[in-house]
């Protein structure tokens, strides 16, 4: 059970960290589906949908830097899930 709580904590921490990153870089790197600048809730939604594995939500990257940040979060999600699965199998 401790492993599950640790994995949950890591995922929640990633959501918060990346939502703050998206908020700070949103002005130049992201747009919404209605071609407006993303708001705080849009950045939080983006981070949650990527971290949950659903994909891109209501905002999308318009620069290579924005795409890179999203790819980093997706790679962290894959690594976190792989490590969690490894720990479940070995314990």
3D structure, described in words:
The structure is a single chain. This protein has three helices and two strands. It is mainly alpha-helical. The protein has one domain (2-90): Orthogonal Bundle (Helix Hairpins), CATH 1.10.287. The longest helix has 28 residues, at 2-29. The protein is elongated. The chain starts with a helix and ends with a helix.
- Per the CATH scheme, the topology name is Helix Hairpins
Instruction: Summarize the amount of helix as a percent range.
Output: over 70%
Instruction: Please provide the count of β strands.
Output: 2
Strand order of the largest sheet: 1-2
Q: How many helical elements?
A: 3
Strand content: 5-15%
Q: How far is the first residue's CA from the last residue's CA?
A: 11 Å
| Mean pLDDT figure | 85
- Supply Rg: 14 Å
Order of helices and strands: HEHEH
Structural class: mainly alpha
Number of structural domains: 1
Shape descriptor reads elongated
The main sheet comes to: 2 strands, antiparallel
Name of the top-level CATH class: Mainly Alpha
pLDDT < 50 runs, ≥5 residues: none
Would you identify the CATH architecture?
Orthogonal Bundle
Question: What is this entry, summarized?
Answer:
By secondary structure, the protein is mainly alpha-helical.
Features:
single chain; 91 residues; Helix Hairpins; two-stranded antiparallel sheet; 3 helices
Helix and strand arrangement:
Blueprint lengths: L1 H28 E3 L7 H12 L7 E3 L2 H27 L1
Antiparallel strand pairs: 1-2
Helix pairs in contact: 1-2, 1-3
């Amino acid at each position: 059970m401790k492993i599950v709580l640790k994995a949950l904590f890591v995922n929640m921490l990633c959501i918060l960290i990346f939502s703050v990153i998206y908020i700070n870089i949103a002005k130049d790197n992201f747009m919404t589906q209605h071609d407006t600048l993303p708001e705080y809730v849009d950045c939080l939604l983006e981070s949650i949908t990527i971290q949950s594995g659903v994909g891109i939500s209501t905002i999308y990257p318009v620069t290579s830097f924005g795409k890179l940040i999203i790819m980093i979060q997706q790679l962290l999600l894959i690594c976190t899930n792989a490590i969690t699965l490894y720990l479940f199998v070995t314990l």
